[in-house]
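ABC transporter ATP-binding protein
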Amino acid sequence: MNETGVPLVEVIGLTKRYGDTLAVDGVDLTVLPGEVYGFLGPNGAGKTTTLRILTGLIAPTTGRIKVLGGRPGSPDVLGKTGSMIESPAFYPYLSGLDNLRLLAEYAEVPRQRVDEVLELVDLKERARDRFSAYSLGMKQRLGVAAALLKDPELVILDEPTNGLDPAGMRDMRRLIRELGSDGRTVLLSSHLLGEVQQICDRVGIIDSGRMVAEHNVEDLRGEQELLVRAEPQQTAHAVLTKLLGANAVHRYDETLRVQVDPGRAAEVNRVLVEAGVAVSELHSTERALEDLFFELTTSKERADVG
């Protein structure tokens, strides 16, 4: 495993154009050894296109990309990378075991490794069942097993919990956490905020093909802000914006989230009351990843509606 701190994935100015459509627009991305990195964004933001480029499935239009120090898709890089991009595809009439044995032959992986990865993803008891009889969660886990066959240094997973029921999502999150704690580096894409916050060390947020932020998840958990419920909300928003600046005040449904030292809560309350605003709730709260996501991916015009 790479423990030098040199990035395993380094992307600078990545773009991908399909005709007149710019699917990825100047993305910079860095994934460090041993971390679980969440690539977060709404559907259609450019996540899958970026991951397909990193695995060598498609070529970029422009940009500098290094994966494990080499070119995406080169034999040396592929030998140290495991991936599941979009839905896993296997022979439906073969068992999970036989599908993995076939892949192991192509990859020149010892046959005993098949049993090891089936154990890792908790599929050993159903290994002899046909793939076509698997639930969606089992199919996803078999896809992860295939990605782990080569005992890779880097694991790339595209929306690994997509379509799973709550139990399947829980199992997949547990599996990804175990991969990260085992010293592997995991890069996963998701549109689910809670998922990323639970299992990732760092997160990059992409919207409309552009990277809008990169943050340490632990730092985000530690940020405090004030939650304010007040009427009329529009007046409260205007008063607090004047006091603290436009970037510090954000609307979320019936509340305002105010990025300010919680020690200033009394001052915030006083200013609102003096402006004739009725404050029904005001307290400090831990800032959630969801808050940051909507701040960065929602335009100011949309945020100010209502």
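thats it. The chain has two domains: 9-217, 224-286. The radius of gyration is 23 Å. bye
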